[in-house]
Design brief:
- The protein is α+β, with helices and mostly antiparallel strands.
- It has two domains: 59 residues; 85 residues, PH-domain like.
- Helix content is 51%, strand content 24%.
- The protein has a four-stranded antiparallel beta sheet with strand order 1-2-3-4. A three-stranded antiparallel beta sheet has the order 5-6-7.
Length: 168
């Protein structure tokens, strides 16, 4: 069974990069204030503390998200599990998958990440979409899924299989 998870650092950089930039800016202002260039008093230190807490909470969320999100392939289905406090599990039969794609923005290429998307027959848009996946692992996962789909299409459907009964 092939499994893949998003990376905590990749998810953090995709979702919370602006907090990190703000923290760096506030840190520079604090250093300049301590050197005597200007004085904003305690307000700057309070903003710095809030920024540190925001970045920390973003990191915790990224770590929890990474641990709580799983994409796997069994012999005949794609399984997507997600959830921190409440779990959601979606199973999609491989023969129902009509489209799968890997998307990479310029920012994703810098971080070696990608988004992986799957759609099924009868749905509009992507039914499963996961961001911050490590690119190399996502490529291997994508290839394995397509190999499974091809072998599934070549295999003859048995007379009394659930798929054959549903089609009649």
């Amino acid at each position: 069974m092939e499994m893949i998870k998003p990376t905590p650092s990749g998810f953090f950089m995709k979702k919370y990069w602006h907090l990190l930039v703000f923290l760096i800016f506030i840190t520079i202002l604090n250093i300049l204030s301590l050197l005597g260039s200007f004085s904003l008093g305690w307000i700057l230190f309070i903003i710095f503390g809030i920024s540190v807490l925001s970045v920390f909470s973003g990191w915790v969320h990224s770590k929890l998200h990474s641990e709580a999100t799983l994409l796997s392939i069994t012999d005949d289905e794609l399984v997507h599990q997600t959830g921190i406090l409440s779990m959601q599990k979606k199973k999609i039969p491989v023969h129902k998958i009509t489209d799968s794609s890997i998307r990479r923005s310029f920012y994703d290429k810098i971080l070696n990440l990608c988004s992986i998307n799957f759609s099924t027959s009868g749905s509009t848009g992507y039914e499963i979409s996961i961001i911050a996946m490590p690119y190399n692992e996502a490529e291997l996962f994508h290839d394995e899924l397509h190999r499974l789909i091809r072998t599934r299409m070549k295999r003859p459907v048995e007379k009394n299989s659930p798929e054959n009964i549903l089609e009649e």
